[in-house]
Amino acid sequence: MLEVNTLRKSFSGFRAVNGAQLDVQKGEIVAVIGPNGAGKTTLFNLITGIIKPDSGQVFFKGEDITGFPPHVICRKRLTRSFQVVNIFQRLSAFENVQGSVLARERRTWNMFTPSRKLVVDETNRILESVGLAGKAQQVGGELSHGDRKVLEIAMALAGNPEFLILDEPTAGMSLEETQRCIELIKDLWKVFGLTILFCEHDMELVFSISNRIMVMVHGATVIQGTCDEVRRNREVQNAYLGGSDPCLM
Amino acid sequence: MLRNILSGKGHLLAYIGIASLLLPPFFAPRFYVYLMSLVLLYGLFATSLNVVLGYGGIYQFGHAIFFGAGAYGSALVITKAGLSPWLGFIAGPIVSALLSLIVGLICIRLSKLYFGMLQISLSFLLWVIICRWQDFTGGDNGIIGIPVPDIISSPNNAYYFTLLATAASLFVAHRIIRSPFGSLLQGTRDNPVRCEMIGVNVRAHQFAALIVSGFFAGVAGVLFVVVNNAVFPDMLFWTLGMEAMIMCLLGGMHTFMGPMLGAGLIVVLRTLITSYTVYWGLCLGIVLMAVIFFLPDGVLGHFNKPGGRRPDMVTG
Amino acid sequence: MIGAFMACTVASALGGGATGFWPALIAAPLGVAVLSLAIERSVFQYLYEREHLTLILVTFAFSLVMGDLVKLVWGTQYKSISLPHGFEGFVTLFGGLPFPKYSMFLLAMGPLVALGLWLLVKKTKMGKIALAAAVDREMVEAVGVNVSVVFGMVFVIGCLLAGLGGALIAPTVNVALGMDHSLLMDGFLIVIIGGLGNIWGALLGALIFGLAQSLGILISPQFGVVFPYLSVIIVLLSRPRGLLKSTW
């Protein structure tokens, strides 16, 4: 469903992404892991159109979407949540999701109907599915960190995606919140049938729910394979044992 | 908003408010009626700026040209083309909306500061052209003695017309702010990346906001013609746009009626102070600094602080 | 503008014109620097953390206040100062073109000041700290530098140079109110087309701006003033971030 071919991106000489390869089949959950600074978020930014690659291609559902602007990619039903919480702080949780739904329905050009009356049911449905129904009226800035990350996911869901990209969804969450998030991701995959691509530092999480894993080091793909294949791979062992992440083994 | 006002104790407030707007021409001296007209039209001018500034987060430094364009557009249509003043009044906002379309196309690719600077350049360009083109635009002196329809030529009637036009414009602008368009516009101000990622074409929305803003500034410009029967090149000069910004800031950039309040305060202050001293610039500068330090949310913003009441989104 | 006015005052106090010029050239920028220090310490230093729009508006507020203060102190009439000894008159260039000597002096001063500034920024420790602080203030503070003082110094140096500019240009124009408005905007535009934060960019921008103005007036006396702004528009459209590399 998603295919990434030798993607490259440099920032003033620093090679953030240096030949990344990725493929995700429909209905899979694929994780991208790698030491800090490996280029995972940049990769996601390249896929979702927030930055343009220097070379390489991105294919989604067979179509070349390399370099397309984010809002176009979103319309193709590939949405994402951000690592650094990126919600509308001044608006309530409800309004955050409502805005996303309105955007998906292309009703953002409507200048004459008061927005509070629109898409209420749909918005509530989404809030319920992520477990935020009780906090719908709370202002984004006031939600707990874990809730904000879940709200991120809700907003990505509002785009009615087929493919969901989650950038470190459990970063900064407490144990309990992480558990709930994992359950949510599993639900999204099984019940809603979404194809999911995510990146994480929590290895336990990664190995427990992913079908396949892609490992990135210094901006390049080292290997993409099943959990076992990755565990056994020598390069991966070197990268991690020599580096920052002690959780792998 | 209206519903809140018209229920409960809001009733009394509403009646006082409406009365204070409708009655003055009957007993107040001509000058005060004139002053109120000015407050209204500058309030509309400031509100039009706030559409893109407060709600859209766009640094529209050159806003004055849309005001001037509306005024000059209608003035020129009336005086040069010899058409009916009513046509001139309609032409004004159309001209300013067109201008904001062109300016928007040129500037939209830039962000924040650069956008503002480019706009100032463009506005300066326009100002110089209008100043130098004596034959067509009256140059430095502007155009005076523009004929307006008899029915609105007296100060009182001009006032009512201004009141009507301003109220109508504010109503429409308010609707727009509360619509999905308005909500997402605020979204583009707070978090443009997020907006892109939920499918909103940020640039396109900003562009549309610019045109809306330009249109209403043009309406304000036309009202200036109605009230003063004249136009001057200074209406296009960028410092007028800065004054409008100060009005927005003073009244509250993130509230709807804030700019109106700010305009009222500034116009009244200016009239008072310039009658005593020539140092209006000094006072304005001090006012601005006081606002920035002590009232960063503006007067209305201060009273409307989130944590309880939240401006515009839910209650409007 | 204040630099220009101060220069006039100092020069006339010292017996006017020719001999008074050089002391004025030193005194005026210093005077401006002192004034700017006062302003910065009292007002600006509290504002660095606010968003850009606020800073711009405060600067505008100050220009309003200062404009009127200048009116208060110096009155509303034009002032003037005459050229220094030895710089009056013309120099003949190739082909017999008379070129004002003072203009040559100014032509030399521009790049000289730019060079000095560049050295300051690139070679001194303070310059590097200032650059770093502009990009990431928190980080610089975390390593123990008093960023507030650094910003303050940067501010004062900038104002000092502005004052110098004012004093330098004083002999060639009418020193009057309102010169600040057009200069403010022109200055901003020049810096932007050159690339924010890039000193050579400012020089280049000024060059383009000035040339456009002169050419413009030559081509069309009535509308010539428009040319520099046209060039700004052209530059910004083709290179939205300015001509040379900016630090923003």
Shape annotation of chain B: globular
Number of helices of chain B: 16
> What is the H/E string of chain C?
HHHEEHHHHHHH
The residue fraction in helices of chain B comes out at over 70%
Low-confidence stretches of chain C: none
Give the termini separation of chain C. Answer: 28 Å
Largest interface: B-C, 37 and 39 residues
Q: In percent, how much strand structure appears in the residues of chain B?
A: under 5%
**Gyration radius of chain C, rounded:** 19 Å
Strand order, biggest sheet of chain C?
Answer: 1-2
- Beta strand % of chain C: under 5%
Number of contiguous helices of chain C: 10
Quaternary state reads: heterotrimer
Q: Mind summarizing the main beta sheet of chain C?
A: 2 strands, antiparallel
Class by SSE composition of chain C: mainly alpha
Fraction of helical residues of chain C = over 70%
Element string of chain B (H = helix, E = strand): HHHHHHHHEHHHHEHHHH
| Strands of chain C, total number | 2
Shape of chain C: globular
Q: Radius of gyration of chain B over alpha carbons?
A: 19 Å
Give your account of this protein's structure.
The complex is a heterotrimer of chains A (249), B (316) and C (248). With 249 residues, chain A is of the alpha/beta class. Chain A contains 9 helices and 10 strands. The longest helix of chain A is centred in the last third of the chain and has 16 residues, at 175-190. Chain A is globular, with a radius of gyration of 18 Å. In chain A, 46% of the residues are buried. With 316 residues, chain B is an all-alpha fold. Chain B is built from 16 helices and 2 strands. In chain B, strands 1-2 form a two-stranded antiparallel sheet. Mean pLDDT of chain B is 80; it is low at 307-316. Chain C is 70% helix and 3% strand. A two-stranded antiparallel ribbon of chain C has the order 1-2. Chain C is globular and about 60 Å long. The interface between B and C is large, with 37 and 39 residues.
